[in-house]
């Protein structure tokens, strides 16, 4: 399976999780980026699939939604999304090429020219 997948929950114990899920989904919708939402509450097998695709280091402690993947590649959780947003690197977070001539594309080019590694996830 390819493309962006956002693992969420429809049973919300706290408002923060709902807001975080919505921020990711709203960004994808606003930028016409195709994605699939997988509700961990409804699809009982999805959690095991999600965990199998995650790096071992990310499975420590509680793994809360939202969790984001591009195909089988782990993008990150909301904290990583927020850090990418603060740094203007949201397409990079989703492991997508930024729009041509965008500020993100220019930033990435500048980092590459200066030999700076980009690892926000």
Structure description:
By secondary structure, the protein is an alpha+beta fold. The chain has a single domain, classed as Glutaredoxin (3-Layer(aba) Sandwich), CATH 3.40.30.10. It contains 5 helices and 4 strands. The chain has helices at 15-30, 46-53, 78-86, 90-93, 103-113; strands at residues 4-8, 35-39, 67-70, 73-77. A 4-stranded mixed β-sheet has the order 2-1-3-4, sandwiched between helices. The longest helix has 16 residues, at 15-30. The chain is globular and about 45 Å long. The mean pLDDT is 93.
Supply database-style keywords.
single chain; 121 residues; alpha+beta; Glutaredoxin; 4-stranded mixed β-sheet; 5 helices; 40% helix; globular; Thioredoxin-like_sf; SH3BGR; Glut_rich_SH3-bd
Short description:
The protein is of the alpha+beta class and 121 residues long. It has helices at 15-30, 46-53, 78-86, 90-93, 103-113, and strands at residues 4-8, 35-39, 67-70, 73-77.
What number of structural domains do the residues give?
A: 1
Structural class: alpha+beta
Full CATH superfamily name: Glutaredoxin
Distance from N terminus to C terminus (CA atoms, Å) equals: 21 Å
Strand order of the largest sheet: 2-1-3-4
Radius of gyration: 15 Å
CATH architecture: 3-Layer(aba) Sandwich
Poorly predicted residue ranges: none
Describe the biggest sheet? Answer: 4 strands, mixed
What fraction strand?
15-25%
At the first level of CATH, the class is Alpha Beta
Helix content: 25-40%
- Number of DSSP strands? 4
Q: What is the H/E order?
A: EHEHEEHHH
CATH topology name: Glutaredoxin
Question: What general outline do the C-alpha atoms trace?
Answer: globular
Instruction: Give the mean pLDDT.
Output: 93
Give the number of helices. 5
């Amino acid at each position: 399976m390819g493309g962006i997948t956002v693992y969420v929950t429809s049973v919300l114990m706290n408002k923060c999780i709902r807001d975080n899920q919505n921020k990711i989904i709203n960004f994808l919708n606003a930028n016409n980026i195709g994605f699939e939402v997988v509700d961990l509450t409804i699809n009982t097998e999805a959690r095991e699939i999600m965990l199998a695709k995650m790096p071992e280091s990310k499975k420590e402690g509680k793994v809360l939604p939202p969790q984001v993947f591009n195909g089988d590649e782990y993008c990150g959780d909301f904290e990583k999304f927020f850090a990418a947003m603060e740094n203007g690197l949201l397409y990079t977070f989703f492991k997508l090429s930024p729009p041509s001539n965008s500020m993100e594309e220019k930033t990435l080019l500048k980092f590459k020219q200066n030999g700076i590694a980009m690892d926000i996830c």
